[in-house]
Amino acid sequence: MNYNSLNHKSKTASFREAVIRGLAPDKGLYFPESVTALDTASIKALENLPDEEIAYRAIKQFAGDEIPEGELRNIVRETLSFEFPLREIEDNVYALELFHGPTMAFKDVGARFMARCLGYFNRNKKQDGGKVNVLVATSGDTGGAVASGFLGVKGVNVVILYPKGKVSDIQERQLTTLGQNITALEVNGTFDDCQDMVKTAFLDEGLREKNLTSANSINVARWLPQMFYFFFAYKQLKDKNKDVVFAVPSGNFGNICAGIMAHRLGMPAYHFVAATNINDTVPQYLKSGVYSPKPSQQTISNAMDVGNPSNFVRIQHLFDNDLDELKARFSSYSFTDEATRDAMSRIYEKSGYIADPHGAVGYLGLKEYLKDNPGKTGIFLETAHPVKFLDIVEETLGVNVAIPEQIKAVMGKDKVKLNISNYEELKRFLLEKE
Ligand SMILES: *Cc1c(COP(=O)(O)O)cnc(C)c1O
User: Fold this and answer.
1) Number of domains in the chain
2) Of 98, 122, 92, nearest to 110 (Cα)?
3) Any idea what the CATH number is for the domain that residue 346 is in?
4) How far apart are alpha carbons 181 and 183 in whole angstroms?
5) Distance CA 168, CA 370 (A)
6) For residue 352, how many C-alpha atoms fall within 13 Å in the half-sphere facing its CB?
7) Does ligand 1 have an atom closer than 6 angstroms to the CB of 304?
8) Average pLDDT of the residues in 11-31
9) Is 303 near ligand 1, meaning CB less than 6 Å away?
10) How far apart are CA 258 and CA 41, in angstroms?
């Protein structure tokens, strides 16, 4: 598959080039040159196909001419090493639980797939050179998923920058206790400082030979595998005769964009709802037709505190940059922290289900849409385990959340990190790295 830059100033890239570069040279996001629906027999057979087979059929056209079938099937199998249960919490309202992976957030799927693709592309690199260095800034969840996904992958080093004192204890442990090819850099500054340093490093000619790449959802190998679990959700629905609405709690809009791609591949869906917190750039755009990004504001669903969602250009491209076409299939609503806490309480009282703040925003988006569009089946994505937002969940619901094994495993380990204050220190660190 060839990939085009959505800024249209760079040459097309192969899957391998797109994965290794992350962003195109003209700073545009890569997008597949064509998207072909699966044959109707595959869609009809969904219920009887194993998850791995569904995932392989979905991803094949995007990677299959550069990764041989056996390798790609292995990558898919290793990516999907956990469950994706669909739970009915009210009549015709389901939660798709995406938090059963090693770091308990949906980002595990994309990170594991991308890590294994990069590992395949670098399989012949010698120990002493040509390694790829994945550089990633994190405000919490991304770093943990990337660290866990890339752990032990040959030919790839991972360097994670996080703001000192601004990630939770559990999140910091997920970044700093792994060792091997993962290095954690604690930055005396904010998340924006971390992100600025990463951006500066990508543009620094002096670091060219370090093969720097990014591992956030702009990378096609992190974005596209997120299609898989939309198919798995549909597969698990008992009644497939009703129209299905997917509601996705959204920040950078990579997850929901993957859902729309799954629909283009033939997965039946009636409508998509992007639910946001008060960072409402997209809901405002749908209302006014004017796209005006804003600085991000802090909320209790902090993985969605994004003022300029990077994947929204991909969604616009999918609808030929036509606002009316977009609105026919896609709605977006924003919710305050107060409404989010209220939804967490209502869900718990009504059905005993503990939602994390991100899932609760998704639930609110779904309910808002269903108000005017009754009689549909609704699925909201529960993107993180409530334990990841323990303080907010326990204080809002007055319950204790049991600590799962994945989290217990990191609690006893020592944090190992280097402390840096500015870009020069980051650059020196990268140059000295083998
Ligand atoms: C990253 C994240 C999101 C937002 O996903 P996007 O693909 O950026 O829209 C939502 N919920 C959780 C828990 C996350 O970690």
Assistant:
1) 1
2) 98
3) 3.40.50.1100
4) 7
5) 35
6) 2
7) yes
8) 93
9) yes
10) 22
User: What are the DSSP calls for 26-64, one per residue?
Assistant: TSPPEEES---PPPHHHHHTGGGS-HHHHHHHHHHHHHT
0.85 cut: is pTM over it? yes
Q: Is residue 15 one of the residues assigned to a domain?
A: no
Range of the domain at 336: 83-104+223-403
Give 335-387 pLDDT, tens digit per residue. Answer: 999 999 999 999 999 999 999 999 999 999 999 999 999 999 999 999 999 99
Task: Let me know if residue 264 belongs to a domain.
Answer: yes
Instruction: Assess if residue 48 is contained within a domain.
Output: no
295-330 CB burial, b ≥16 within 10 A, e <16: ebeebbbbbbbbeebbbbbbbbebbeeeeeebeeeb
What are the Cα distances from residue 277, in Å, to 169, 331, 394?
24, 14, 20
Helix (H) or strand (E) holding 111: helix 107-121
Average pLDDT, the chain: 93
Q: Which residues pair with 276 in a beta bridge?
A: 334
Question: What's the rounded Cα separation, in Å, for the pair 175 and 162?
Answer: 9
Any catalytic annotation for residue 107?
A: yes
Q: What is the pLDDT of residue 127?
A: 52
- Show the tokens assigned to 331: 């709605």
Question: Among residues of the chain, what percentage have pLDDT more than 90?
Answer: 77
* C-beta 226 within 6 A of ligand 1: no
- 282 and 306 Cβ atoms separated by less than 8 Å: no
The answer to whether 115 and 225 are in contact (CB under 8 A) is: no
Q: Does residue 416 sit within a domain? A: no
**Catalytic member of 11, 44, 60, 107:** 107
Under 8 Å CB-to-CB from 56, ≥6 apart: which residues?
Answer: 72, 73, 76
